[in-house]
TrEMBL record:
This is RNA methyltransferase. Signal peptide: none annotated. It holds the Pfam family Bin3. Keywords: Methyltransferase, S-adenosyl-L-methionine, Transferase. InterPro entries: Bin3-like, Bin3_C, BIN3_SAM-bd_dom, SAM-dependent_MTases_sf.
Length: 264
């Protein structure tokens, strides 16, 4: 049972907006965020916490799409199999991408220049021998760790921290408080990881989603009863930690609202 939310395909595009689930289709939430705050990703160092199979991280880092254009993307997940899949997905997307640069917007023809049959027959393309860390795929990396519990190696390393449909699992596993490495500790760590004026992007699950989760994960039922903080309290908790609410990203395809906070 995926007691940390480490379901296969949890961050897939079709799960969150009902769109085409093909791997080249950019997650609708990214487009909504860019439409809401155009400079949110451009030239930024991004941390994707709970990256799952890497779908979001790879779309972010794929500079040939010309939608997000970050400097670097780091994805972290607790599940080693999902991290392995994320690295494979990165290699697969690079293997299908046309060589060279583009100055246009998202171009499906470039992103799918080499057909799947070619990749299946000839294998994945090797990464460039002369690595340029700000170019795809070298600008994306994945790590396996329980980020909620590990120590920060260096404070202020990122411009954007993403927590998309994952904070419920931190909350259910580690409860409310700092002493249990709980929700307050997680939010505090997100704050510490950001540079001044950096963005924290939070897509919280509703309380009913917590209740559904414990029905599937009976071992978490006792923890649910201990929680005093609920999703409607998150904004006040984040304000105490040092975040200002900036904007709410809404879109017709989104199943959940996405909240953008900024580090004071």
């Amino acid at each position: 049972m995926a007691s940390h939310g480490n379901y296969r395909g949890y961050q897939g595009v079709s799960r969150h907006d009902g769109q085409n689930s093909a791997s080249h289709v950019v997650d609708y939430r990214l487009q909504v965020l860019v439409d809401t705050l155009p400079d949110i990703f451009a030239g930024k160092d991004i941390l994707d916490v709970g990256c799952n199979n890497g779908a979001i991280s790879v779309h972010l880092g794929n500079t040939t799409c010309r939608i997000c254009c970050p400097a670097t993307v780091t994805g972290v997940d607790i599940d080693p199999e999902l991290v392995k899949k994320a690295r494979s997905h990165l290699s697969f997307r690079y293997s299908r991408t046309a060589p060279g640069e583009t100055t246009t917007g998202n171009d499906p023809e470039r992103n799918n220049y080499f057909p799947i049959s070619s990749v299946m027959e000839h294998g994945h393309r090797p990464y460039p021998e002369d690595p340029v860390p700000t170019k795809f795929p070298r600008n994306v990396e994945f790590h396996c760790e329980d980020w909620a519990k590990t120590s920060i190696s260096e404070a202020g390393s990122y411009d954007v921290v993403l927590a998309l449909s994952m904070v419920k699992w931190v909350h259910l596993q580690h409860l409310d408080e700092v002493m249990t490495k709980g929700l307050r500790e997680f939010f505090g760590k997100c704050h510490s990881s950001l540079r001044l004026s950096g963005y924290f992007v939070l897509e919280p699950q509703e309380w009913a989603s917590y209740e559904r989760a414990v029905k599937k994960n009976k071992s978490l039922g006792g923890n649910l009863q201990k929680l005093k903080i609920r999703p409607e309290h998150f904004e006040s908790v984040l304000k105490e930690i040092g975040f200002n609410f900036l904007q709410k990203a809404e879109g017709k395809g989104l199943k959940r609202n996405i909240f953008i906070y900024q580090k004071k």
